[in-house]
Specification:
Layout (H helix, E strand, L loop, with lengths): L2 H17 L8 H25 L1 H25 L20
């Protein structure tokens, strides 16, 4: 993906990722947003593979996934570092109640 195209795709992907969990399950918005979110993930993964190589990209993706999941779990359990908060049943899917 060219740098110019990445600047166009990234904001749409981010908006779709925010809107997706708020859309009604099985509704038309979810059906529309699903390929956008999956496509954005594929574009980001592919874009990271080119300069870093497959192994480094896979390690980076794994580290980010585990670290963000752990931080969210710690945050919902202890309130550190963002203060007390919890997730409702609106945002799905969830892993470890996060």
């Amino acid at each position: 993906m060219t740098p110019r195209l990445e600047h166009v795709v990234a904001p749409f992907t981010a908006l779709a990722m925010v809107a997706y969990p708020l859309a009604r399950r099985g509704g038309p918005a979810r059906r529309l947003l699903t390929p956008v979110v999956v496509g954005g993930l594929a574009a980001i993964t592919t874009g990271a593979t080119r300069p870093w190589g497959h192994r480094r990209q896979a390690v980076a993706a794994g580290v980010v996934a585990v670290a963000t999941g752990a931080l969210e779990r710690i945050g919902t359990s202890t309130g550190v570092p963002f203060g007390r908060y919890r997730y409702t049943g609106v945002l799905r899917p969830a892993i470890a109640d996060v």
